Amino acid sequence: MGAEHAWLLAAIPAGAFVVLALFGRYLARGGDWLGIAAIATSFALFFPVLADFLSEGDGLGPFTAAVEWTRIGDFSFPMGIFVDPITIVMLAVITTVAFMVNIFSVGYMKGEPRYWWFFAVLQLFAASMILLVLADNLLLLYIAWELVGLCSFLLIGFYWEKRSAVEAAKKAFVTTRIGDVGLLIGIILLWREAGTFNIQEILRLAEEGHFGHTYLLVAMLFIFIGAMGKSAQVPFHVWLPDAMEGPTPVSALIHAATMVVAGVYLVNRMLPAFEVVDETLLVITVVGLVTAILTGFMAFAQTDIKKVLAYSTVGQLGFMFVAAGAGAPEASMFHLMTHAFFKALLFLAAGSVIIGTHHHQDMNELGGLWKRMPITGTTFLIGSLALAGVPPLAGFWSKDEILVVLDKQWGPWAVSLLGFAAILTAFYTTRLFIRTFLGQPRDPHIAEHTTETPPVMTGPLLFLALLSVVSGLVVFHEVGTALGFPGGFGEFVFLPSHGPHGYEFDAAFAGASVVLALLGIFTSGWLYWGGRLDRSTRLAEWQPRLYDMLVNKFYFDELYQAAIDYGILGFSYVVSWFDRYVVNDTGVDGSAQVTGYAGFILKHLQSGRLPHYAMSLALGVVVLAVAGLVMRG
Amino acid sequence: MTLEEAQGYVLLATLATPLVTAAILVLIPSQYRMAHRYLSLAAGAVMLGLSVYVFAAYQVGHDPIQMTLRWPWVENVAFLGEKGVSLYLGVDGISALLTLLNGIVAFGGILVSWKIDYRPKDFFILYLVLLTGVYGTFFSLDLFFFFFFYELAVVPLYLLIGVWGSTRKEYGALKLTLYLVAGSVLIWIGIFAVVREAGLGTFSLPALWEAGQSGALSPAFQKTFFPFFAVGCGVLAGLWPFHTWSPDGHMSAPTAVSMVHAGVLMKLGAFGIIRLGIQILPEGAEFWMPTLLVLGTIGAVYGAVGALTQRDFKLISGYSSVSHMGYVLMGLGTLNAVAMTGAVLQMFSHGVMTALVFLLIGAIYDQAHTRDMKDFGGVAKVMPLWVIGYVIAGLANVGLPGLSGFTAEFHIFVGTFRSYPVFGALGVLAAAFAAAYMLRLFSIVFFGPLNPRWASLRDARPVEVISGGLLILSILAMGLYWAPFVDRVSETVLVLPGVTN
After folding, report:
1. Is B442 touching A (CB cutoff 8 A)?
2. Helix A544-551 vs helix A534-542: angle between axes, to the nearest 10 degrees?
3. Any domain includes B477
4. Were A250 and a residue from A155, A406, B31, B64 both cysteine, which residue would form a disulfide, CB within 3.0 to 4.6 Å?
């Protein structure tokens, strides 16, 4: 079992989906065991793939295999898989988190209607997501890209009796679809010049200067629009917080750890081409920075646990884009991995809170839960510290890496902006933890009935907490080597044009990074410690308009709604009106009336009443005769 | 008898099945309702089987035109010479695929017409005559019979809609018929001009194609008469701005007629543009195709935007048909092999998904007697199977990968970008609008809290499940493994005159 069988990782959950979708409702326990077995198999099979990949040659050679799907003349379209270090990292993240989420869901979704359907779609998602990272060509990638979007749509709208869930699902699908328009245009533009969809071929041609500079620039910007849509970067970020309407395990898997990082993956995958037109790198960096800072602020005034985490996810995706924009896929993919673990942990812990408190997720009703839910509380704390960037947890190492590469590429301005975003992260994370788990319960009634969740839910929490602690340690050369990565994990992911270079640990940056985290944590602690809200309330009253801005998330949604209502729908009304009244009533019915008058005259020439149909035939003959005369002459 | 000859008789049988059945139905007195239904259904099943055979037996890698059969009819009379008019049948890759489409949609249409109570005898007779016309047009390699069958397909529509329709049916039927007849007049003029100008004394299409390509038809002539075919057939294909019969016609038509009309008849128009326009007048096509491309693109965007704010189910599908047929014309307009293959795939894809949509709309309208979306809400609770079918059709409409719509549209976009990137991009954008109007429909009608008024709606009935299942199967087949479709179509498209690779 080697890398050439990596497609099995996707095929097994896909098969489970077909079985569950058709027969899931008739299976015992809704077939959840089948889903878990399928994803567990994929998880287990990942290790032989990894081992085979590491043992081949120098351990870093990519693996590729393809079959021809169709051919039209010279236009051949092969489908294939491609395994390289970036793929390996993604596979590790997807299979691990998907496995944990499937187990967790058994507890979380217990007793829900359409239980079987939930597990069916989870399998389809896992299959599509794995396919997305295995695809060796952009078209297959696009196919998988749309399929994960479909799964996201189906799962956000899982509780479709709720109007809000339906609206959120629609918003997610349509918003990402707008990004996908960009992606598809970008893909076809690349194909137009390269004559192939194969990613490695396109990258090679780009580096050889096969594309014109402006042409490639435009194409890559279109590709990046697709990445922005999927990864919810400003201004496409509006769908992700609403997507929290979906069941919490879905938020953990799709809207934190895997699908939303597809954009980051795509940018890293295509980074050599982005580097050829390096103006795009600045665009990527700026988009990432703006997103990280804006969403950091947006998370300030949220009181729904999941919404805070959603904004945090968007912000952390911004961090990953910043790293990619600095030309450092190793830092970007590293943060992608650590973030996947600790953010999945945070979401699942939030899910555990929701179940433990019997469906309460607003901080205004919670507080003091640590005593009642010790495992959930402790794991949530670990996740929070990792997110805030406290050493030696995972988030610290990867964030530090990003600051180092950012300094090297763009200099102090970028570093200070990202540092600011890091303070914001630490701030809202601390606020979230304090207001949920510390102090006195705000609603004693809820707290009284709160109990720790069963092991089927705390088990995945503990495992992910473990990963949130240790996964950052691969930054050390010795750890990477010991795990079997030649040259350490730092040299595992790299751009061929740059060659591998390990992670650099810079004491000054690490120190500064810790200071930033502590700054955020202490400010937040000072404001909220012990469940007090008087200081923050006074702050809000001091600048009410600023507070309004934050509560309303800078009015993005209102702005878009207005643009849709007055722009697009207005346009549609104009088109409908034009079609009904101008084209139809005036152009068609109007001329029909003229014909009608002619028919009225003709009627007197004929003996009986003529139906309109025969009338037209007669007219046709006349026209024909005239045409015949014209042709003759 | 060689295989080729035998297969020619298969085509003849496919064509004769509905016609002969219709003739038998005429003889059976109208009070034997079940006899009419069962006989029609049997004919539908035979047609489906034969259509599947024609598609499957079409051999890739051989002469593009296969399964030929030729019975001379009028020879050496007046200006007609040797083989003047003959019943000349045969299929190429394009018509083989469209034959399959017709078989699937026709069978489904007959099945869902089971419940028709008002004069079922007349309904089935007309319906079968219409189907004969469709098959005949796809099979004809003789211009005379091409036009004969084309008209045979169009004429029964007036009665089918006018008698069995709903919602302003007389208006819809009349408008549609006037439009199509006007189109036919143009085609007729074009046909006589071509036959006369070629001066071969024959209506044989292959002979005329040869004439068009060899220069026997002068460039000036071709440029003059191409619009006659393009507009004449384009009317039926929903060519913007001659599309307004489509929303009204669809709104008025009974379910089975909507299915076969949007599903197959609109494709007849696009097929005519290929058969008559591109194949007989290649130089005219080259001259006019950019215009067709522009009109197609306008139609694609216009239909999608227009659908955004509609409230009637059928109007949404009517506008969405304009949009999707716009893609077909856009693909044909590029004269690029990939995009044209996509255009033909789109004909099939749009055919099956629209037939499915109209089937489902009919199923809910029969119970609810309203098609205003705002009246509904949460029907997924009571009609899960119906919703699943509609969601699949809708997602195919949106161009979701794994379903037929994506396969077709992606080929169209790829080919269009080759020469016309801006129009390709507009086409991609229209697909995003498609997502908006489809998801709007989903969210208003299917989901949310159940409107108690509809608590007693029943789910899809067995006849709807069978015919819908067949259509869903076709959507999935083209979406997942499109090689059998692409192979047949592309081989034929590549040998069309003036097509660039």
Report:
1. yes
2. 110
3. yes
4. A155
Q: Which of A73, A174, A191 sits opposite B436 (nearest CB)?
A: A174
Q: What is the pLDDT of residue B181?
A: 84
Burial readout B394-412 (b: 16 or more C-beta within 10 A, e: otherwise): bbbbbbbbbbbbbbbbbbb
**Averaged pLDDT for residues A164-173:** 91
Among candidates B310, B338, B401 on the partner chain, residue whose Cβ is nearest the Cβ of A147: B401
pLDDT at res. A596: 64
Q: With a cut of 80, say whether residue A589 has pLDDT above it.
A: no
Q: Is the CB of B429 less than 8 angstroms away from the CB of A181?
A: yes
Q: 3-class SS at B492?
A: helix
List for chain B the helix, strand, coil content (%; round to 5).
75, 5, 20
Pairing verdict, β A63-72 and B66-74? unpaired
Decide if B251 contacts B315 (C-beta within 8 A). Answer: yes
Question: Percentages helix, strand, coil for chain A, rounded to the nearest 5?
Answer: 75, 5, 20
**A167: closest CA of chain B, how far (Å):** 7
Asked whether residue A18 carries a pLDDT value surpassing 90, the answer given is yes
Domain of residue B85 covers 67-97+154-494
Burial class (CB in 10 A: 0-12, 13-18, 19+), A579: buried
User: In the numeric block, which tokens belong to residue A299?
Assistant: 């998370």
Counted across chains A and B, CB pairs separated by less than 8 A come out at 157
CA end-to-end distance (rounded Å), chain A: 80
- Mean pLDDT, consecutive 10-residue stretches, chain B (501 aa), reads 84 90 85 86 92 91 85 77 83 92 91 83 88 92 90 85 79 81 89 85 86 84 89 88 80 83 89 91 89 92 88 86 92 90 94 92 85 84 90 92 91 90 91 89 88 83 89 92 89 84 74
d(CA A521, CA A395): 15
- State the total domains in chain B: 1
With H, G, I as helix, E, B as strand and everything else as coil, classify residue A80.
strand
Backbone phi and psi for residue B80, each to the nearest 5 degrees, phi listed first? -80, 130
Q: Does B57 touch chain A (CB under 8 A)?
A: no
Token readout for B18 is 């509905």
CA nearest neighbour of B285 among B235, B355, B213: B213
Rounded (10°) CA dihedral A437, A441, A444, A449: 0
The interface predicted TM-score (ipTM) is 0.91
Query: Looking at per-residue confidence, does A383 or A620 come out higher?
Result: A383
Interface test with A, best of B439, B444, B454 (most A CBs within 10 A): B439
Say which amino acid occupies A194: A
- Answer yes or no: is B408 within a domain: yes
Candidate from B241, B309, B395 with C-beta closest to A572: B309
Instruction: State whether A188 and B414 contact (CB < 8 Å).
Output: yes
Residue A217 near residue A186, CB atoms below 8 Å: no
Residue numbers in B near A221 (CB within 8 A): none
- Domain membership flag for residue B182: yes
Contact A631 B193 (CB under 8 A): yes
Interface test with A, best of B197, B417, B422, B496 (most A CBs within 10 A): B417
Interface test with A, best of B155, B180, B185, B383 (most A CBs within 10 A): B185
Q: Let me know if residue B257 belongs to a domain.
A: yes
- Taking the mean position of all CA atoms in its chain, how far away is CA A482? 32
